[in-house]
Structures are given as C-alpha cells and as structure tokens.
Amino acid sequence: MELASLLTRAAATAAVDDAADPTRTRILDAALEEAASVGLDRMTVEDVVRRSGLGRMTVYRRFSKRDDLVDALALRECQRFLATVAGGLDDGATPEEATAQAFVAAMSFVRTHPLLRRVAQAEPGAVIAAAAARDRHVFRLGVDFIAARLQAARPEGDARAIRRTADLVARLFLTYVALPPDDPDPRDPAALHAYARDVLAPLIGLGVDGPAG
Known about the structure:
mainly alpha, Arc Repressor Mutant, subunit A
C-alpha cells in the first residue's frame, strides 16, 4: 500500500529544511500535483519532471530514485499537517477551545489537501489501512502528538488517562477523514468548531480528568 509506506517512512525520517532550495520545493510541488492527479502508486519521476518544467537532470540530481522523491514528499506533507494543527492553536486557549481549534485546523487541512482529498474520495479504506500498517507506527505517532498537547494543557493529569484519551481522539479523527460526516459539514469551519467544542472537548476533558465526584 503506497499511502502506508509514504506515511511510515515520513514518521521515521529526520526533518529537512527546503526553504533554501526553491528548486527542490518546485519538484515536490509538482510531485504533489501529479500524485493528486493520477494517484501516488502511478506517479513516476518522469511524470514529475514533465509537470515541474525543469530539466531531467535537475530533478534526478536531487531525487535519483522514485523512493527518494516519495520519502521527501511524505516528510514535507506530514510536517505541513502538524505545523497547520499547531499553528491553529491560540496561545492561552483553554483546553476545550484548543480542542476545537485543532479539530478545525486538521479537518480543513485534509479537506483542502489535494492528495488526501483524492484518497478520502477514491479509497477511504486506505486511510485506515495506512494508519494500521507497519505495526501501527503512524497511528502511534499521531497519538504521541495528541498526548503531548493534552499533557501540556493538563500537566497534573494522569499520564495513562491522557494516553487513552489521545488514542480515542486519533481514532475519531481517522473516521472523520475516511468517512466525512454530514453533520457537522466538513466545509464549514464554524460548524466544525462548534461540534468539537460541544461534543469532542467534553469527551477529552472527561478522559483526562476523570468523572466528577
């Protein structure tokens, strides 16, 4: 499964700063467009060369193999997703508000991302399969990210309870990506925010803090 391989390799790869290499960025942009158009499993380096408008040797000097190109694309898009979610959080927001903000940012990213949108529409099962691949390494990476955010918001919270809650949130998010809901409308940020605040945030608070009394 190409999507599973892409996410797994991204999770295990060190971050790379592409800001100083606009040519690399242009190649990866072309790779993203091509994968969104024909599917990741059908994308070739030659297709990316043609779409980028760059010389063949220019592309191959940076990515001599298709796997190198896929790894780089995976890493960049995963970094973009996490940066988008983190950037959607206001400093000083309550945990409940932060939950709503993170949910809106994550769902908006998936809905507007060309490759993830294609996968969700054409192969919704691939989202779940990708998360479960390779001993669920990618899924655990997501749980780790959520748990760290919850622990920061509730430093006095029980670590095991926080981990369980993060696991629940990750599972819920996967279902929303694979099977977008009718209510709330995934195209309506205000509706997503209200839903996360009224439905998801109380679940998270209960899981972290435990039942009252």
